Amino acid sequence: MTGNKKLLIKGMDNAPMAPKDKPRFQYTLLPFLFAGFSITSCSVTLLADKVSASHISPLSFMMPGVNPEQSDKDSEPFVEIDPTGRYGRYTELLGSGAVKRVYRAFDQEEGIEVAWNQVKLRNLSNDPSMIDRLFSEVRLLRSLTNKNIISLHNVWRDQEHNTLNFITEVCTSGNLRDYRKKHRQVSMKALKKWSKQILTGLDYLHTHEPCIIHRDLNCSNVFVNGNTGQVKIGDLGLAATVGKSHSAHSVLGTPEFMAPELYDEDYTELVDIYSFGMCVLEMVTLEIPYSECDNVAKIYKKVSSGVRPQALSKVRDPDVKAFIERCLAQPRARPSAAELLQDSFFDEVDDDDDENIDSGISP
User: Region entry Disordered: which residue ranges (predicted)?
Assistant: First the structure.
């Protein structure tokens, strides 16, 4: 079909009528659901400068993916709705951890899928002050706006079920650990791009007022939009907010990624840099740090003694190894996120490449 074309749906408010000097072809669409409204039928007029009836088929106007025999029974019901009535939760589980479950959900206002995060408060503590602190910290995260931080849309406490719930955006390709395992042939340049985005997110958190320490950064808490290569830090529900001293005093995190000083319950935001170094190590080697240890006690013993994970010996590139070592240094010698972003490690990564990444990943 050639010439200029324009589709008009007649019978709808403010729809312009076809000029009399243009040929018109009309077809009636079968019943379908559109944006939540049932349309029984409508007439579609095609205007064309040069077109013949032989070029037109009624099938050309069928909505893609629409089955005329579909009914309401095919729609998936919500099993839970947030207090505002905007977000609905489905039964599908996207992921789970020791204290949290993440479900697929839907934002009815924006028409997009989101993640419904649910923390069972009884799994954390029977201390009301601890629960209140967690709630206030998660609520603070709602104000964060950064392209490398998962967006938090809403948060509330369900008194009846004793849960803390918060709605976040969904990344299309899941977490970085699973994504890296799926795509094993990845260039070092692509890994550096991912690493730079993680550091950018950490720099935003650490320079926020008050400072925010993630405390549980690992590859399963970093998420990927595989179609763009964009990386976002998530699972901020256990993050700590600290004042000007930037010192925190509670132990939370994943043992393999926890800095030695975190075990001592006196630490700063630099514990996230240590965890970031372990993330880079996992990305490079496809091995979780300290996987040679079969229990937490052995991990703690090695970490507290300054023994590096065996995976570090598998890093062949001396520049990559040196960069990881900088991240794992003692707190006084450990650089900040801003300082690491200036490291020569990222020289081949352009600033404009952060969001639109062609990583050369093999299918």
Answer: 344-363
Task: Indicate if 263 and 298 belong to the same structural domain.
Answer: yes
Catalytic site residue 82?
A: no
Same-domain pairing of 113 and 223: no
- Tokens 């009636």, residue? 28
Active-site entry in 107, 235, 272, 353: 235
* Residue type present at position 121: L
Query: Both 106 and 196 in a single domain?
Result: no
Residue 298 neighbours by CB under 8 Å, 6+ apart: 290
How far is residue 53's CA from residue 325's CA, in Å, rounded to a whole number?
71
Q: pLDDT tens for residues 297-355?
A: 999 999 999 999 999 999 999 999 999 999 999 999 999 999 999 999 999 998 766 54
Alpha carbons 252 and 214: distance in angstroms, whole number: 10
Range of the domain at 96: 80-169
Contacts of 328 (CB under 8 A, 6+ apart): 274, 277, 278, 308, 334
Of 107, 102, 101, the C-alpha closest to 85 is 107
Tokens 């403010």 map to which residue?
Answer: 14
Within a domain: residue 337?
yes
